[in-house]
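Quick log. Single chain, no ligands specified.
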Amino acid sequence: MAIQIQHLSKAFDSKPVLADFSAEIPEKAVTCLMGESGCGKTTLLYLLAGLISPDAGKISGISGKIAFVFQENRLAENFTVYRNLKMVCKGQKISKEMLGEMLENVGMDKALLHAPVSSLSGGMKRRVAILRALLCDSAILFLDEPTTGLDEDNKKAVAAYIRQKAQNKTILWVTHDRKEAQSVADKIIELH
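-> predicted structure:
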């Protein structure tokens, strides 16, 4: 089922961030959300995820689990990469070998499975956060600037890997990068 957003509004301290916004997010497709900083992209993701409530409007078509890659990585810094990834794999048969292959697919050495997250670079942490969201058994995936901090080669590899691994998910992908949006999106929504 598509996600329907109807006349959504949200203000913080009487300052409107979203005003009468409507859109449709197609099911099992990648929709990129673009716009200038401060136009409400992250706010929209938070509203759709139920983390904050709208002042007005209606959201429908969201059911089941949502996986979310926030702007900040939100990893368990003192855990190893392996433990960070395994924490979302309850009930799934995911081997260390499979997790190592996933790391390699996003340009990381599989030996890093045993490294504490706190020892990784920012770009590596970003990729672990993305892999963790992809491993989550969810029908919906929200990505808030997922390739921030990655060089061009890693951006391309990660974007392609997300497309490959999340084919049956409804994805809302926030980006400032028009080239990235054009390469991954089935649909682009501009926020003003």
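Strands lie at 3-12, 15-25, 30-34, 56-60, 66-69, 140-144, 170-174, 187-190.
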